[in-house]
Amino acid sequence: MRRIYLPLVLSWLLLVQPAGAKPSEHLNFGTQLNAAECNTTGARLVINVIQRIIGDADSGEAGNNWAYDDFQRRIQVWQLSDDTFCAVVQYMGSFVTVMGQSPGFFDPDTNDTVAAGVTGTFEGGYRSTVFTGTLKDPADYRTRGNIGTFNYMCVILPGVPGPAVCPGYQDWTTFYFSSTVGFDLAWWGWVYHAGDNGSWVNSVDGNSGDIN
């Protein structure tokens, strides 16, 4: 699962699998991440930025850290009233695995593993609940366009469950809000593709597949 801490249309990558590849998992995230889910009558788009993240860590169904991620995400926030907001965050990126437990197998006591150096792509994202917040004026970062590259500098310790050590992590909500209340995830999901090494869906609607 993509690590989420709570407080420009992208061209999605297409990975063509060779004949004989493992079945490819699919995730219909388009409806859930549609702007219309937040952009209700009278809503105003107040944040519309692109952020690049490098050196992030990814966790599997058993809580295991299984890959390093680099990705680009589009962050959009709509203001629904004076102090209520809704966010849609869309991801597109790549990963490289570390040796250990595979992401899609829940029992960490089994031998279902993934080798180091398996590469692939992923896409998806999340939509927030309607939350209360106070916008910063001025914001720490621009509210339109590209806000740059952020290196989370994560370190995955093989065989150690729980969150990876990520000294460069920053919560994007703190760039724009001095406080938030009730920020949670109304929907989240990502689909990972690694060709012959398989595909994995990790979503609030259910998980399927694996990469190994």
Explain what this protein looks like in three dimensions.
The protein starts with 43 loop residues before the first strand and ends with a strand. It is an all-beta fold. It has one helix at 173-176; strands at residues 44-59, 65-79, 84-97, 100-101, 113-114, 119-128, 131-135, 144-151, 177-181, 185-193, 199-203, 208-209. β1 (44-59) and β2 (65-79) form a beta hairpin. It has one domain (35-203). It has 1 helix and 12 strands; from the N terminus they run ββββββββαββββ.
Summed up:
The protein is mainly β and 212 residues long. The protein has one helix at residues 173-176; strands at residues 44-59, 65-79, 84-97, 100-101, 113-114, 119-128, 131-135, 144-151, 177-181, 185-193, 199-203, 208-209. The protein has one domain.
Count of distinct structural domains: 1
Number of helices: 1
Uncertain runs are 5-21
Average per-residue pLDDT, rounded, comes to 89
Rounded Rg = 18 Å
The best one-word shape is globular
Q: What order do the SSEs take from the amino end to the carboxyl end, as H and E?
A: EEEEEEEEHEEEE
Give the % helix.
under 10%
Structural class: mainly beta
Major beta sheet, specifics?
10 strands, mixed
- The span between the termini is 16 Å
- The count of β-strands is 12
Q: DSSP strand (E) fraction?
A: 35-45%
